[in-house]
Specification:
The protein is built from five helices and no strands. The chain has 143 residues and is mostly helical. One of its GO terms (cellular component) is plasma membrane.
Length: 143
Amino acid sequence: MFSKKSIITFLRAQVAAFIGGITDYGLMILLTEVGKLHFTFSILISGTIGAIINFSINRFWVFKNQSGYSSHINSQLLKFALVVLGSISLKSFGTLVLQKAFQIDYRIGRLITDSFVSYGFNYPLIKYWVFKTNQKQDIIKSS
């Protein structure tokens, strides 16, 4: 059902998400615990930094979608920024709901929320919208 290429792409995307996510999560805890920011603000800051790391890894290693055209990268950056904005909003809201409604510690709530947002929101949009290649580009690359 799944091709070897799609499985490898998925696994690479998970590595990129993990590296960006570890940076994001660690920075969130640092900003909240040491910086004394409310966790929703920490998620905004840490999510932005994690997103920059994630974008770079996805662009150059996972999807290898790095044409030299500045309009192409600008389009990818805009789309990625919209995904990140949605992702950060969902993570902040989900973490807040779990903390307020169910008294789940924000660190645990964030992990729970992240798992849903990463697989159900981020990955599909990043793969099929942000770094989508047309089949002509794929044929030219494989020639």
